Amino acid sequence: MSKINESEVDSLQTLAELISEVMGSPVTIEDEAHRLLAYSMHDPNTDPARIATIIGRRVPEHVQRALYESGAMQRLQDSAEPQHIEQLSEVGLSRRMAISVRHYDEIVGYIWLLEYDGSYTDEQLEQFRQGARIAAGQIMQQQRRQQHIDLLRRLLSGRFQSEQEAAQQARESGVELPAHHYVLLLEHDHQPDMSGWSERIVQAANEFAIRVTLHMQEPSRIVMLCGFGIAAIQARNANSDPVALIRSMITRARELLPQHEELYMAAGEQVGSALHIQRSYRQARELVLLHRQLPETRTIHYYPEAGFYRYLPAMHREAEQFPVTWGPLDRLAAYDQEHNSNLLQTLAVFLDLDSDTKRAATQLHVHSNTLNYRLKRITEVGGIDLTSMSEKVTLYLELKLLWFDSSG
Question: In terms of pTM, does the model score above 0.90?
Answer without folding.
Answer: no
